[in-house]
Amino acid sequence: MKSYRKPGNLKFWRNVSNGMIITFLSTLMSLVGLSCIVFFSDFSISESIMYYLVMAIHFFSIFIGSLIVSYFVGEKGFWLGAAIGFIYSIIILLLGFGYVQEIFFYQAVLYKIILGIVAGAFGGIVGVNL
Predict the structure, then answer these.
(1) Neighbours of 56 (CB within 10 A)
(2) DSSP annotation string for 58-113
(3) Calpha distance 99→57 (Å, rounded)
(4) CA 93: distance to chain centroid?
(5) Which residue, 77, 88, 61, is CA-closest to 124?
(6) Which of 17, 55, 65, 103 is the 20 to 30 A CA-CA neighbour of 23?
(7) What is the mean pLDDT of the chain?
């Protein structure tokens, strides 16, 4: 009987999961660092600026996770990065929906997903070419 599971496909998703782990660790370290800076500093940051800082951390973390995984894999950086960016963005949005009681779909949600994919794809392209 012929197996329908392709070893290359399994390897691809293993690399994506490694990228997700790197991305979440990068996000965690960056957010803890930002929290310490805000907590121990004398200046206050408005909520609107904090929102953009957190979004920048998310996209930078996607970029870093995609870059590192693509660097070690050496191929398919665009697809690895795009998959990492897409899955990470969906997970973060679902976690955000858990805190908001009503489900909403704004244009901003679509933009966050698209920007996550672009950041991941760009990180993957850069990582393969390093």
Answers:
(1) 12
(2) HHHHHHHHHHHHHHHH-S-HHHHHHHHHHHHHHHHHHHHHHHSSS----HHHHHHH
(3) 20
(4) 11
(5) 77
(6) 103
(7) 85
For the segment 76-92, the average pLDDT, to the nearest whole number, is 92
Cβ-Cβ contacts under 8 Å for 24 (sequence gap 6 or more) = 61, 88
Q: Residues 38, 8: contact at Cβ < 8 Å? A: no
Between 126 and 4, the more confident residue is 126
For tokens 């998959």, name the residue: 83
Instruction: Report CA Rg, the chain.
Output: 17
pTM of the predicted protein model: 0.84
pLDDT of res. 4: 47
SS3 label, residue 119 = helix
**Cα(22)–Cα(6) distance, rounded to whole angstroms?**
25
Q: Are 63 and 80 in contact (CB under 8 A)?
A: no
Q: Which two tokens stand for residue 61?
A: 């973390």
At residue 115, what is the residue type? L
Q: Is the distance from CB of 66 to CB of 81 less than 8 angstroms?
A: yes
